[in-house]
Amino acid sequence: MAWRLSAAKIYRALLLAYPAEFRHEYGPEMERLFGDRSRTEPRIRLWLESLADIALSAPKEHLHILAADLRYGARMFSRAPGFTFVALSVMALGIGATTRVHALLWRELGRLLRRVAAYGGQADERQAPAD
After folding, report:
1. Which 3-state string (H, E, C) describes the chain?
2. CB 3.0 to 4.6 Å from 23: which of 27, 30, 86, 120, for a disulfide?
3. Among 107, 130, 103, which Cα is nearest to 118's?
4. pLDDT (tens digit, 9 = 90+) per residue, 101-123?
5. Per-domain residue ranges for the chain?
6. pTM for the predicted model, two decimal places
C-alpha cells in the first residue's frame, strides 16, 4: 500500500511534464488509470510504459499548444499589419542595440584583461601597450 501511495506521488510529479491545460483536463483520469494499473500489473512494466508514454507524448502536447499559439499570433498580426510592422521594428532595434552594447562591453573588458595579464595583475593606463 505504501508503494502505491509513493508511486502515485511520483507519477503525479511526472505529469508536470505535460502542459498545464492538458494536465488539468486529463490529469485526474491519468492518475486514476495509473492507480488501477498499479494494482494489477507488474511494477517494472508499469513504470517503463508510463515513462515511455510521458517521454513521447508530453513534447507532442507542448508542440500542439505552440502550433496553436503561433497560428493565433499570425492571425492577430495579419489583422493589424501596421501594428505588426511597428512591433517588429521596435523589437529589431532593441535587439540590435542590446547586441551592440554587449559587444562594446566585451571588447573593453577584453582590453582591460589583456592589460592586467601583460603587467602581472596591475592595470596601469600609462604603461599599457597600444591596442
Report:
1. CHHHHHHHHHHHHHHHHCCHHHHHHHHHHHHHHHHHHHHHCCHHHHHHHHHHHHHHHHHHHHHHHHHHHHHHHHHHHHHCHHHHHHHHHHHHHHHHHHHHHHHHHHHHHHHHHHHHHHCCCCCCCCCCCCC
2. 27
3. 130
4. 999 999 999 888 888 888 776 65
5. 1-79, 81-131
6. 0.60
